[in-house]
Design a protein that fits this description.
zinc ion binding, 458 residues, 24% strand, Ribosomal Protein S5, domain 2, Ribosomal_Su5_D2-typ_SF, DNA repair protein RadA, 3 domains, Rossmann fold, alpha/beta, binds magnesium ion, zinc, binds thymidine-5'-diphosphate, ATP-binding
Amino acid sequence: MAKSKTQFTCTACGATSSKWSGRCEACGEWNTIVEEAPFGAGPAGSSLGSAKGRTIELSDLSTEDRPTPRTVSGVKELDRVLGGGLVPASAILVGGDPGIGKSTLLLQAAARFARQGVKTIYVSGEEAAAQVRMRAQRLGLTQSPVMLAAETNLRDILTTLEAERPQLAIIDSIQTMWSDTVTSAPGSVSQVRAAAHELTAFAKRKGIAIILVGHVTKEGQIAGPRVVEHMVDTVLYFEGERGHQFRVLRAVKNRFGPADEIGVFEMTGRGLAEVGNPSALFLSDRGKPSPGSVVFAGIEGTRPVLVEFQALVAPSPNPQARRTVVGWDSGRLAMILAVLESRCGVPFAGLDVYLNVAGGMKVSEPAADLAVAAALVSAREDAALPADTVIFGEISLSGALRAVAQTENRLKEAQKLGFTTAIAPKGGKAPTVDGIALNRVGDLASFVGDVFGAGGDA
Ligand code: TYD
Ligand code: MG
């Protein structure tokens, strides 16, 4: 056996070190290093195996070895995020906050795949089989030919998979699984890593597609599924705000499809319902035009999505004014505020700024810059934009506006939802979309001056 000294592992990135420190040197996170028993070593001796690694030439791949067609579940929002369906023998991680709806999503997906003729096993380490069946009943899925197992011991799970040979295995969750070759407790980094490694390696070898569920906690206390991300082909995150019914399944890594693709669901009393037209849902509770509210025509993956930015600007009672953001990047907000102040003469010093994306959606596109700037100035000047207008465009530090990709798709989506005007940067070819007047602006200062009559007086 190799030395069995304890080692220290970062719960965020999985890096190991021989001593504890407050901050992980690999990923820079604070307070994420925990003490762990080391990985069990293999048999002593040379690491050269007797079964030699076999190589083949790329051109020698026969048609049987080429990727087989994907299986679609029939849940369009899921199939699209997977890149067009489930790839046989692929490994997928579905991460998300506890209680967000991962088990619900995957039980529904399991039922749909099973009904498509995919032999599916759902292994629950968190609930007894009877509890899973109760949930299935509530979701109206009891007639689906999904096999259930309530198991946490990795050896037992592998034995079951070996005996049953399913085409799809769902492991809910990876934090509850434990391998008896690792001495540390279930949920620890070593256990999560070992279990994920064994499961994915086994599944690849046997041609089983595998979906691992992983809880992420904000504090990073329990081993986050981050350590698993490198081992799998596809990483999906299930996001949403607890108070909202919307849930977004987002591909952050996908070897078999585009990353950044999203699927939108709504949590109902009978499980998750697909949302085929997210724009309509995200804009559904919009009232009269109000100061600080701006509709952004965004693109999520391959699909246009309209969302509403809401800003509130108020005199700050504190020496240090507040900047609070939900659904967008706070660093980006600071940049937009600085550009508005120094290029457009619209100061925000002494003012508290709150920015929110309605509906619990997260936006990461730089194309939202102009919509955010418009929301901020609109709130500050207490002047509402017309309700029939959408805005998009990237802002550079000089205050110039940059054209963004897929202008035509954005305009078409706006037109579909009844908007009549779009404000977008100059540059590039201007597509014409019937029913949408396109108002093209060159830089932020003239936009602020034209639309709000603000700025220039700082
Ligand atoms: P769950 O799938 O158990 O979350 P996770 O596996 O991510 O921890 O979902 C838990 C929440 O979903 C729970 O608070 C109740 C809610 N829910 C519904 O609103 N409707 C339903 O039909 C189901 C099954 C759950
Ligand atoms: Mg669960």
